[in-house]
C-alpha cells in the first residue's frame, strides 16, 4: 500500500502507524521479559507474567483500530476547505 498511496495518505496515517508500532514493540518486549522470568517463583516473575498477559489481552487489541486509521487515507482531511473550517 505504501508504494501506491499518495504522500498525503501516508502522512495522514503516520501517527497511527507509529503508535501501532510502539504498541507492537512494547508487547514484544513484555513477552520477552515474561519468558526470561518464566519458571522462577519470585514476585517479580509473577507480576511480569500478569502484566504481559494484561497487555496482550487489553492493550494490544488497540493495534487493529490503529491499522484501520493508518490505512484510511487523507480523504476526510481535505473534505472541507479552509473557508468552510473558519466559518
Plain-language structure description:
The protein is an all-alpha fold. It has one domain. It is built from 5 helices and no strands. Helix 2 runs antiparallel to helix 3. The model has no long low-confidence stretch (mean pLDDT 92).
Sum up the structure in keywords.
0% strand
Secondary-structure blueprint of this entry?
Layout: H1 7-12, H2 14-37, H3 43-59, H4 62-70, H5 82-86
Helix pairs in contact: 2-3, 2-4
Oligomer: single chain
Main sheet record: none
State Rg: 19 Å
Helix/strand-derived class? mainly alpha
Briefly characterize the structure.
This protein is mainly α and 87 residues long.
